[in-house]
Design a protein that fits this description.
The chain is α+β, with helices and mostly antiparallel strands and 100 residues long. The chain is 25% helix and 23% strand. It is built from three helices and four strands.
């Protein structure tokens, strides 16, 4: 089954960012922002075969405590590009996090 995540992203209306990595993969980054600008941030990373969506309740609640919260869909997961469920290497994961 060929999943077209780019089509799924078109329907997503909540605050998010699309980050293009150095190897041209688009990573999907959800954002839950506090009412006032904050210099405190949290990055939520999901587990294997998951995505950032289930962390929405946590993200919204932490944003009420004055944190800017981000939830990253790792490559091949959720609304990010890449081979579904792929985990290319630890080095690539670190590069993706650095580029995010």
């Amino acid at each position: 089954m060929d999943i077209q995540v780019s089509k799924l992203r078109e329907d997503f209306t909540d605050k998010h960012y699309l980050i293009t990595t150095s190897d041209n993969i688009i990573l999907f980054l959800r954002a839950w922002e506090p009412p006032k600008k904050s210099n405190k941030a949290i990055l939520i990373l999901h587990g294997i075969a998951a995505y950032s969506g289930p962390y929405e309740i946590m993200g919204k609640n932490l944003s009420k405590l004055d944190y800017t919260v981000f939830g990253l869909d790792l490559r091949g997961h959720g609304l990010s590009d890449g081979k579904r469920g792929d985990y290319p290497s630890r080095k690539r994961l670190i590069m993706d996090l650095t580029e995010t």
